[in-house]
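Blinded run. Sample ID left blank on purpose so nobody reads anything into the name before looking at the predicted structure. Input follows.
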Amino acid sequence: GAGADNDLYINQAIVFIEDAIQYRSINHRVDSKSLWLYRWYYSRTCQWILSLTITIILALAFIEKPSSLTVTSDVRYRLPAWNPPCGLTESIELLCFLVFMLDVSVKSYLVGWEEFWKNKWLMAYILTLIVSLTDWIVSLSFLCTEDVRIRRILRPFFLLQNSSMMKKTLKSINSTLPEMASVVLLLAVHLSLFTMFAMLLFARTKDGQQDKEWMVYFRNLPDSLTSLLVLLTTANNPDVMIPAYSKNRAYSIFFILFTVLGNLFLMNLLTAIIYNQFRGYLLKSVQSSLFRRRLGIRAAFEVLSSLKEAPANAQQSYVNVGALQQVLQKVEMDFRCKQAIMRSLEVCSCDQLSAAQFQKLFEELDKDAIRQHPPSPDYQSRFMQKMQFAFGHPYFGYLGNVVALANIVSICVVLVMDADKQPSERDDFFLGAINCFFILYYLLEMLLKLLAMGLKRYLSYPSNRFDGLLTVILLVLEIATFAVYGFPHPGWRPEFIGLLSLWDMVRLVNMLIVFRFLRIIPNMKFMALVVTTLLDLVKNLRAFAGILVVVFYAFAITGIMLFEGAVVPMGNIRYIGNKLNTSCLFFTLFLSFKEKCGFMGLFGYFQAEVIYCLLYLLSLNLICRWAKIYFVAWWLISSVIWVNLFVALLLENFIHKWDRRCHREPLSDIEYQRTVELMFRDVLEEPTEEELMEKLHQHPHLQLCR
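Blinded prediction complete.
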């Protein structure tokens, strides 16, 4: 009946608006049961369960063999790591796979059979699950004794496919690769030419005593190429030039030219190209997100205009305001946006909305999130008004910064004076008395600010919350110190009591005081601009960080499978020889590696994939030729490409904020919060009505009346 049709149109409009808010595609089933399933799937509970499942399956690498559950990574001192029994982690994996199977089943059903075959991500999802389950069965059949587990390398895919923004970022990176490849090819040419020059310049001579450069770094083509590749990263600089420089100073010209051309020109040229190209592709991605939002809003308008009570007009469609209010009551959206749209509807004197008016209402979603601070208390007493003016003035905050700086200076003076003293010779009275005085001032400052600003206004500023929290922690620590060790006095060096010694308590207090000094950042505009840029990167570029996790995870798991157990303590030197015969990996003394890298068992542990140590292994020829492919690939992806991508995004965010700062000085009581989509809002193009309607008519499951 008409009532059932109206309910269906209302539910369709709700889902389309929620799709627009989240930049989701509207190409999914729109019948009543599918809409219920769709909203359930994208509910907070369901998405939280899916995110938890992805986190669990990624975290399994830390407890699977070889386990990382040890205090130290030094194989000489650590106790045997706990390895879970066969079947424990496999059972957890199976539960995760069941969740993923349910996830891909729901997604495949919602998009429909026709869209399923067009969706490469869904097909890759199913293929990944099939391979992972097959490998899981193989593991159980071998009683978990197999060394290679393919499904571990595939785990990051589950994180990748669950984020639409991560997919867009990956697509942008993939589109940028041809431009990157041209510069990487130029780097390869640069490296090859200088390798040939080096082999000619440092060729073997009759005097063996003068051939140290040839013997250590340029003995053959692979060694020469490796030495200059590591020099491109500056990891072996200036070690690689010392033998030649000792023989003749003029040899330094070769290394200077190589470093200047490679590091100063080509690497920075790569950064410039990546910034220019990736910004363009990211802009296109954000443009498509804007199109999705406009398309979702227009789809909601079209279905609402099909309601029976909607006025019939052959020329133009309209939506009843009451129907839109009914929809907004059920839509999951930001409270601020919902209130702003509802206020606009109340102010509007018309009963129907055209397509343009309907779209304009939802432009509230594109605006900056503005948060206004609560007002200060309104005191009637003249004395309290003067107090409020004095302690609410910015100069009072500047005084607090000066006091905090004085505290830092005093701590530095005491630390310098006591640097060479033994613990038994140190007198903690002076430092304890200083801490007591300054903490009391911080407490007084916080109370006076609360008096002047009121609790709500005080807590509305992040800097005040940061300052107040550290002040309370410092006060609690100081009270605990006095309760255990008494008040400061000359010769204040009591014996160890409780969980922490007096010196540990004092050090902890001083570290918090130093950390508290960061309160000066909001008062320094240029520093605040840099910090807010970094915070925005953390908040808004989670997709980029997610892909970074995927890359690190995949290389770490690959490194574990390839090189696990290759480095062992000196006591097992015979084992090293046996291991090398089978895997052709490390064949040098273990301590030389430890002295350079600072830790042991590089590939026996998941967290120990450190690029500096990998390049050091290359420079000392600690690995066979084929193993170098792994390390060079890691360097290219993580250092050459990924670091430059991060620099490009950092520059884009910083330049955008700088331009906004030049055009608009922010008000003291208003904070603006931007998303990554809003970074490019000023340069995005609005889609035309023809484009929107053409796309809507191509919807596989929605039949429009016009």
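Unblinding after everyone has recorded impressions. Residues 252-304 form the longest helix (53 residues).
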